[in-house]
Amino acid sequence: MIQADMVAMNPTSDLRISLVTRATTPELTAAIDAVIRKYLPQVVVGRSTACCSDQQPFFNNGFPAAFLLESASDPDYHKVTDVINRPNYSVELIRATAQIAIASVATLATE
Prior knowledge:
Layout: E1 2-5, E2 15-20, H1 26-39, E3 43-48, H2 55-60, E4 66-70, H3 91-109
Parallel strand pairs: 1-4, 2-3
Antiparallel strand pairs: 2-4
């Protein structure tokens, strides 16, 4: 299970994504990290210990799970101001996140 949530806030000029290490499968997270480094080397990869998102029930029930998360904190998270046309909203980061997920699934399917 690969979850991508909150992946549009990017206040820097670099594309940044965090791989969550809490309630995730280390081997799947490492595989995704390798895919990013191979196919999207322009993406800066960080780590996060964020808690309690949609991947956790999968992980808790024995399914491999990974979680991609934006690296920046979103001040508009779950507010009516959480819209596309605002500063630091990055369509490029959304595109890169989709590419990461697709490349990861394709890579894992052939291994």
